[in-house]
Structures are given as C-alpha cells and as structure tokens.
Amino acid sequence: MAAWVRTLTSTMFFLIQVEGRRHWKIGQTCDQNTPLLDGTDLSILADFVTEAEYTLSPGDMLYLPPGVAHHGVALDNCLTYSVGFRAPDARRDDFGSLPLTLY
Fold it and tell me: Are 65 and 12 a contacting pair, CB within 8 Å?
C-alpha cells in the first residue's frame, strides 16, 4: 500500500464524496523529518501506520488536518472533491514568499 502525505505545510483538506464510495485509511501526523520513499516526486511514506478507517458515500465529508497521512481506494466508480485551505503563516506574505518584513 502506498500511503502518502499530500502536503507537509499548514494546509488542511476537506474530502467531499460526490459519487460512489471511497475507503480511506488515515495515518500518523507527519513532518519534514518523516521518512519518505526515494525515487519519486510524490510524498509517499516509507512506513504508514493506520490509525482510523472510514468509508465515504455521496454527501459525506472527511476532514484532514495539516500533515496527516492518508490513503484512499475507490470501492466503485466514484468522484471525491479535495478542497484545501492553507492556514495563514505570519512569516510569509500573501503570495507565499519569504521574508515578510513586519514594522
């Protein structure tokens, strides 16, 4: 099973099930020191620990806090919307560039 962390930033996600069903395994909280597999541009974990499991049906929503590992498998033809929100970071300006000078 290839479990991954979508982002290691301060982005939170809401997974909204639109059609069909998808089974999610939710894992550990990760940071920049969490071991990842080599040889890929994706953030795939070297070691995934399942902490919870959920099956989403149309109309269901699952919240993923920042840095939480997750792995989803479609149980039939399905469509899942992923809506991400990045928390403000006082060290960055509105465009994500460093540094921001505060007066």
Answer: yes
Question: What is the SS3 assignment for 22?
Answer: strand
- φ, ψ of residue 43 in degrees (nearest 5): -90, 75
Are the C-beta atoms of 43 and 2 separated by less than 8 Å?
A: no
**44-101 confidence digits (pLDDT tens):** 888 888 999 999 999 999 999 888 888 999 999 999 999 998 866 655 555 555 444 4
The correct CATH number of 11-86 out of 2.60.120.650, 3.40.1390.30, 3.10.150.10, 3.10.20.90 is 2.60.120.650
Q: Say how far apart CA 52 and CA 67 lie, in whole Å.
A: 15
CA-CA-CA-CA dihedral for 51, 40, 99, 66, to nearest 10: -10
pTM: 0.75
> Is residue 21 within 8 Å of 57, Cβ to Cβ?
yes
